[in-house]
């Protein structure tokens, strides 16, 4: 089977015995800029082309700014502190809810040919190690990948006496009326150059797709809107998309494609791509000792066996592959980098109050700095807009991140009475946390991250000015995405997430800026502690009198457990037990996939293997995955969404290995369904690479390859002990169910 390495190990790819009939089932390739959804139909193949920059303008720019509310903030704070629980409902400038600009596909590349032998064997597959999708039927073969080296979609079709009708088709589901479409096709010495320009209604923005067609053998002639290739042996297609204003020079774009190194050689282009893609993908592998017969099954058949180790192996591999493929210019959207419909759910946005953060959760440990670098690019590009948010809404210095962004604007304008997301102040900390983890993993600090942390601290310096009777500062207004107290409105006081984020932002900024450390640490110390409610659970609002609403998909109040290290079983056992109780009481509301996997991540940090297994089971048993192994937001494959696909690798790593700059936790939450296995290549936040093996008899062995000299605390089921690591010297650690001994 494609992508299997070694022959008896986990499968690094997936396959199906039939072409895709829906775009949701198409196999995926991408380089973090361009994306391709490949159907693999031998007679009427379709490749849907996407690009991260393609968001639809709507002419509503006056609403794409944060509301000017700073002057009214003190009065709102007075009312909330006086006990007016609904005071924040009218804290708005009166605008209606505005979604961010929606992500959309570019076009379909159509490849029609006369029907072949319907009885011939068919197979389509995607190789995660190479990023290639391949379809074969009789003597016909199609291979597609998106080059990470040359930023181009590459497709090669081969067959004896090959006849193909080629065109670029803009007619995709949900395409709005009023699109101005222009198409072109010219013959060239190597074959043809196809172009498609689409201008948005009421805008000077447009995008243009260009495909260079190189034909071996046979003849090529114009058949508008494309070309007809007859009696060829091979057709090589190179495709790019550009978003632009004015007109794009199609001839120059074609020349740029023609001038690529190895432009006439599929294998040459693939080799340049593999130097980047395979190097990244191969860094981490998970082997759960699955049955070889199950490993050989197509993905659709494997999904019908949700309890098997082979499915977890393949979803881990697919999750890392899709996450890498979706990350480059930006990190992944709600749909990753892919959609076949202009009506993308929730605008296909970057949603930063849970979804983006969950999707990228494995980046540091799973050795995908490419993902973190894409995440950093989004953050640093939008910092000026974050400053505007802080000034306009709160009248402060520093930065406030939006909960939704289309990638172009970082302004806060998506909010309403039921979702007062403009009141949420924890976003900057959550978005900066992965950048801090990345720096800890590699052992070097990015000055851009340090500067952004300082701006987060400056916001809290200016914002945290109100105090209670005990002299503690109060976070007011405060919002816990996307929930509300049972006895109050959405905008409230002292949400647990806001407290954790403020404390973490101030302390982390202090660690990076010694010249301000005393001031910022003193402010962090004045924040109120978390509250344990009458049910023994960590309260979602620390303010006394605010009652919890348990049946909700978000776990915002457990931010201190994951992704932070503020609450854990080792340093804060009482709070950890309260967090465990809060997790136990939490409902699932509408069965959103992100809620289940967020639950699993928190449970893993709390060493609750049973809850990890239960949350994973809800997703694996709920029919959340398409045959492409991309996921859905709801059960029964309802609403294409990358949350589950991209988050699952993080869950599997967290149940096996956890690290902080001063601690290593081995097998904290291993489910009974994974009695044996090997995880290779994970990175720790104290600078060591780690391989872990474990067996059904309760023994485990970790091999650490430290990049710096450090002493950490080793935590296992048997307790704690110091572990000294020396840069450049491998260290083996053996663990049993009753003791942990370093040797």
Map the helices and strands.
Blueprint: E1 13-16, E2 27-30, E3 34-38, E4 44-51, H1 73-81, E5 107-112, E6 122-127, E7 132-137, E8 140-146, E9 153-169, E10 180-188, E11 191-199, E12 205-216, E13 219-223, E14 226-245, H2 250-258, H3 266-281, E15 285-287, H4 292-295, H5 299-302, H6 309-325, E16 350-351, H7 355-359, H8 369-394, E17 404-405, H9 427-442, H10 447-463, H11 496-512, H12 517-525, H13 573-585, H14 593-605, H15 609-620, E18 632-634, E19 638-640, H16 643-654, E20 657-660, E21 663-666, E22 677-683, E23 688-694, E24 700-706, E25 710-716, E26 719-725, E27 731-735, E28 740-742
Parallel strand pairs: 21-25
Antiparallel strand pairs: 1-6, 2-3, 3-4, 4-5, 5-9, 6-7, 7-8, 8-9, 9-14, 10-11, 11-12, 12-14, 13-14, 15-22, 16-17, 18-19, 20-21, 22-23, 23-24, 24-27, 25-26, 27-28
Helix pairs in contact: 6-16, 8-9, 8-10, 9-10, 9-11, 10-11, 11-12, 14-15, 14-16
Salient structural properties:
743 residues, alpha+beta, Beta-galactosidase, Chain A, domain 5, Immunoglobulin-like, 14-stranded antiparallel β-sheet, six-stranded antiparallel β-sheet, 16 helices, disordered C terminus, 6hp_glycosidase-like_sf, AFCA-like_C
């Amino acid at each position: 089977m494609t992508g299997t390495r070694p022959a008896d190990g986990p499968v690094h790819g997936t396959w199906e015995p039939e072409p895709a009939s829906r775009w949701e089932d198409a196999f995926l390739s991408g380089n973090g800029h361009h994306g391709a959804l490949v159907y693999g139909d031998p007679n009427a193949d379709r490749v849907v082309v996407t690009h991260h920059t393609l968001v639809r303008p709507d002419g509503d720019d006056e609403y794409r700014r944060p509301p000017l509310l700073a002057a009214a903030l003190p009065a709102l704070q007075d009312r909330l502190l006086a006990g007016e629980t609904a005071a924040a409902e009218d804290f708005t400038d009166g605008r209606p809810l505005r979604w961010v600009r929606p992500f959309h596909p570019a076009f379909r590349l159509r490849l029609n040919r006369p029907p072949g032998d319907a009885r011939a064997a068919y197979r389509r597959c995607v190789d995660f190690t190479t990023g290639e999708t391949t379809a074969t039927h009789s003597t016909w073969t199609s291979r597609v990948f998106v080059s990470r080296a040359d930023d181009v979609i590459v497709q090669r079709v081969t067959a004896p006496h090959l006849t193909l009708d080629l065109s670029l088709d803009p007619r995709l589901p949900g395409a709005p009326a009023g699109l101005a479409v222009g198409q072109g096709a010219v013959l060239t010495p190597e074959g043809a150059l196809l172009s498609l320009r689409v201008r948005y209604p009421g805008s000077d923005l447009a995008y243009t797709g260009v495909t260079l067609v190189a034909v071996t053998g046979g003849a090529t002639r114009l058949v508008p809107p494309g070309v007809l290739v007859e009696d060829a042996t091979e057709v090589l297609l190179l495709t790019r998309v550009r978003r632009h204003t004015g007109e794009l020079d199609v001839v120059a774009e074609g020349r740029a494609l023609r001038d690529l190194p190895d432009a006439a050689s599929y294998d040459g282009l693939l080799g340049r791509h593999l130097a980047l893609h395979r190097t990244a993908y191969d860094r981490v592998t998970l082997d759960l000792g699955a049955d070889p017969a199950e490993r050989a099954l197509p993905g659709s058949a494997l999904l019908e066996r949700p309890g098997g180790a082979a499915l977890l192996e393949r979803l881990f591999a697919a999750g890392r592959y899709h996450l890498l493929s979706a990350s480059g210019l930006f990190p992944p959207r709600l749909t990753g980098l892919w959609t076949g419909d202009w009506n993308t759910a929730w605008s296909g946005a970057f949603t930063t109050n849970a979804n983006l953060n969950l999707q990228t959760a494995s980046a540091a440990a799973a050795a995908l700095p490419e993902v973190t670098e894409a995440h950093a690019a989004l953050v640093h590009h939008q910092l000026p807009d974050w400053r505007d948010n802080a000034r306009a809404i709160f009248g402060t210095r520093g930065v406030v991140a939006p909960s939704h962004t289309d990638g172009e604007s970082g302004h806060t304008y998506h909010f309403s009475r039921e979702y007062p997301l403009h009141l949420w102040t924890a976003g900057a900390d959550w978005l900066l946390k992965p950048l801090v983890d990345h720096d800890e993993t590699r052992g070097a600090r990015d000055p851009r991250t340090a500067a952004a942390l300082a701006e987060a601290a400056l916001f809290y310096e200016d914002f945290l000015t109100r105090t209670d009777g005990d002299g503690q500062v109060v976070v007011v207004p405060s919002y816990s995405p996307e929930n509300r107290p049972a006895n109050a409105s959405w905008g409230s006081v002292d949400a647990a997430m806001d407290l954790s984020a403020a404390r973490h932002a101030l302390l982390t900024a202090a660690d990076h800026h010694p010249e301000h450390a005393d001031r910022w640490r003193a402010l962090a110390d004045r924040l109120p502690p978390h509250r344990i409610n009458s049910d023994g659970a960590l309260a979602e609002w620390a303010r006394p009198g605010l009652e919890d609403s348990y049946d909700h998909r978000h776990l915002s109040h457990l931010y201190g457990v994951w992704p932070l290290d503020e609450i854990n079983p080792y340093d804060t056992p009482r709070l950890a037990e309260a967090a465990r109780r809060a997790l136990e009481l939490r409902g699932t509301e509408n069965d959103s996939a992100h809620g289940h996997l967020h639950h699993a991540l928190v449970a893993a940090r709390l060493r609750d293997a049973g809850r990890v297994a239960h949350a994973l089971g809800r997703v694996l048993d709920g029919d959340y995955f398409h045959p492409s192994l991309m996921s859905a937001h709801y059960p029964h494959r309802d609403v294409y969404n990358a949350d589950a696909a991209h988050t699952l690798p993080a869950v599997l790593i967290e149940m096996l290995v956890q690290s902080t700059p001063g601690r290593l936790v081995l097998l904290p939450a291993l489910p009974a369904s994974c009695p044996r296995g090997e995880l290779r290549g994970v990175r720790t936040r104290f600078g060591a690479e780690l391989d872990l093996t474990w067996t059904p008899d309760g023994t485990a062995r970790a091999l650490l390859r430290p990049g710096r000299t450090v002493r950490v605390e080793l935590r296992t089921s048997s307790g704690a002990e110091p572990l000294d690591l020396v840069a450049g010297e491998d260290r083996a650690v053996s663990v049993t169910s009753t003791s942990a001994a370093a040797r």
